[in-house]
Amino acid sequence: NSPVTLRTNSSGQIKIDKLWIGSYELEETNNPNYGYLVNTQKIYLTINKRQTTVQQVPNEYQLGSFDLLKVDKDFTNVGLPNVEFTLRKKDGHMAGKYVSVDSSGNASYSSNRVTIKTNAEGKIHIDKLWIGKYELIEVNNPKYGYLVDSTHVEITIRKRQNTIITRYNEYLLG
Known about the structure:
Elements: E1 22-26, E2 43-47, E3 63-72, E4 84-89, E5 98-101, E6 107-110, E7 116-117, E8 123-130, E9 132-140, E10 153-157, E11 162-169
Parallel strand pairs: 3-11
Antiparallel strand pairs: 1-2, 3-8, 4-7, 4-9, 5-6, 9-10
């Protein structure tokens, strides 16, 4: 028997009617959905008489992580706490959505503008970010004597990698 190429519909499903009774082998060969890995495990099915067989095939999304360190320009060992940023996805899946961070440090996405804050050491860590390009913007710096650096910074999150960024603020002398 020669292989047949099948494609999922817009719901990610394949439906085949009137298959012969017997054993079948499914193999995913391509996944054009942005950011998903090809599932390389073969799936074995047995079709019985007058029975509907349903088989779910899991796909893993390519995720990455991000660390930001916000420090004094001249004293780089001085982290700046409670500095607020927006982090917005610019491309692919979740484009235009803002990132927030749950209590476990994992990313979640929202259509509403949300901010993320540096901790007491001036750090932000986010896990489980969808791969792609993001825009980081500082929106509030409550630390007395520091101006907000509103430079738009483009960040690229790559699969299974941690992207590390350091941003500096200059202290204004009176």
